[in-house]
Design brief:
GO terms for molecular function: methyltransferase activity. InterPro entries: Methyltranfer_dom, SAM-dependent_MTases_sf. This is Methyltransferase domain-containing protein. Residues 38-140 form the Methyltransferase domain. The protein is an alpha/beta fold. The protein has helices at 3-12, 20-30, 48-54, 67-79, 117-126, 145-158, 162-183, 196-204, 214-223, and strands at 36-42, 57-64, 85-89, 102-108, 128-139, 226-238, 241-250. It has two domains: 3-141 and 209-250, Vaccinia Virus protein VP39 (Rossmann fold), CATH 3.40.50; 145-204, no CATH class. It is built from nine helices and seven strands; from the N terminus they run H-H-E-H-E-H-E-E-H-E-H-H-H-H-E-E. It has a seven-stranded mixed β-sheet, sandwiched between helices. Strand 1, helix 3 (48-54) and strand 2 (57-64) form a beta-alpha-beta unit. Helix 7 crosses helix 8 (196-204). The protein is globular, with a radius of gyration of 18 Å.
């Protein structure tokens, strides 16, 4: 089991549960499906996405490496009165494929945080039933990705205490406010990271992170019997720090 990522998200998601209404709005804009048999929330974290999937699916299986995140997810299921979600404490790199098959696999901003993202993606493909669909959000590789990685390594090495994390978050919050004011724009809020502090910690403090091009992920799925397309190419406050979303349907 990936203990470093487990430890990070044991601390992170219980502190930064996203807003249900905003998350649901985003998911309904992203998903074409409205009625499902079985769905997998791969890396469920806070559990809000699991709750929303459970409103469309007969059964949701929610998997996460973080036990404290799973506790938070169970609280959300109880809060919204959802009893069709089964939670499993597993590393997606070691996913029990007997949990499948699934009509829909939702893996938003998770696979690239594992030590071996390709192993995660292969497991997601394996548990998708013929005709089923994977929604996969990954970090986009840009020319500034090495700079962001340098900042992440610096933050983890020298700024990784609660007080110093707040200092880093405050710096980027101020920088964002100034940049938005100069452009005459409002600060972009995201459903998954409701504050800039949350965005900064999720971006600069995880133990692992891998960036990908859209083309290589589309090609990966198509080599493995899927029809894949990019449905959202930039989701984020900065063009150099963003996620893209792939929808891939397994050939029947």
């Amino acid at each position: 089991m990936d203990l470093a990522t487990k430890e990070f998200y044991d601390d992170f998601w219980p502190r930064f549960v996203p807003i249900y209404d905003e998350t649901k709005k985003y998911m309904l804009e992203t998903l074409t499906e409205r009625q499902l048999g079985r769905a997998l929330d791969a890396g469920c974290g806070h559990g809000i996405c699991s709750v929303i999937l459970s409103e469309m699916a007969e059964q949701v299986v929610s998997v996460d490496v973080s036990s404290d995140s799973l506790a938070t997810a169970r609280q959300q299921a109880q809060r919204f009165g959802r009893d069709n979600i089964a939670f499993h404490h597993q590393d997606l790199q070691e996913l029990d494929t007997n949990l499948g098959p699934f009509d829909l696999v939702w893996c938003w901003g998770v696979a690239m945080m594992a030590p071996d993202p390709m192993k995660v993606m292969r497991n997601l493909m394996a548990v998708t039933k013929p005709g089923g669909t994977v929604y996969l959000g990954l970090y986009l590789k840009t020319w500034l990705s090495p700079v962001h990685e340098g900042v992440r390594h610096f933050c983890r090495a020298y700024m990784d205490t609660p007080a110093r994390r707040k200092l880093v978050g405050g710096f980027f919050t101020g920088l964002t406010k100034v940049a938005c004011a100069l452009k005459g724009q409002e600060i972009n809020r995201r459903a998954d990271n409701v504050s800039i502090q949350a965005q900064v910690e999720d971006w600069y403090y995880p133990p692992y992170k891998t960036f990908y091009s859209i083309e290589e992920i589309v090609a990966l799925f198509e080599r493995n019997g899927f029809k894949a397309e990019c449905i959202q190419d930039r989701l984020g406050r900065m063009k150099s720090a963003t996620i893209f979303v792939i929808r891939a349907t397994k050939n029947a």
